[in-house]
Amino acid sequence: MERKSRRTHWLRPIVIAGCLVFAAACSHSESGAPASTRAVTPVDPATAGSIHVEVSYSGTPPTPKLINMDSTPACAAAHTAAVADQSLVVNDGRLANAVVYIKSGLGDRGFATPSEPVVIDQTGCLYDPHVVAVMVGQPLRFRNSDQEAHNVHGRPKTVDAWNFLMSRPGSTHDVTFDKPEVGIPVGCDIHPWMRAYVSVFSDPYFAVTPADGTVTLKGVPPGDYVVAAWHESLGTLVRPVTLPPSGAVNVQLTFQGASG
Description:
Number of helices: 2
Distance between the termini: 57 Å
Strand order of the largest sheet: 7-13-12-9-10
Number of strands: 18
Structural class: mainly beta
Largest sheet: 5 strands, mixed
Oligomer: single chain
């Protein structure tokens, strides 16, 4: 009985790896979803403007939790200091890792798809960056800079799911999307503390807030819009905005946190 148990334990990683390879082969998103066929609508640079968005957090943010990597010594050894969870990063009241975008108002405009990939690196058994955004049809490239094997498991609600194994250091794997979706969670089943979020848009008017919580959406045609900010643990805030020709408007979006 003991011999059989050991044999089953030895076979388990092979079975998991096989399942991951199979899941990757079945994911339509990975095979290269076509870019939108909608004709590109020119934006007149003479009348285009900008929307400057500041995303804040009101209240006292909780102390970030520390990530425990003791289950994988190689991951723990990659860090000389404690690693904090990235699910809520606040600096002087400004919120990082919020996805700012135009939720509505662009109508049926079409936009060119960038060919340059957005890269998420797997380094130190973490995803870097933690939050990214791409356009429909634009490659999202996962890179493994670790000696450790990782799998990349996307769990969207609208686009096709994906799950593939990256066992070779320096390897890359591209994913593309055929429709928009905000806040797709991505994880590694081997190292469960690894989490990232991907948002996909059909236009170029989006950005992820850096440490100072501010972004500027440039080259926006004049019009009436709804601007939104999405955050993985705080939800979504929206604000109506009117952008005049050649104008510049400021938008303040404040998530309400704990009172102290």
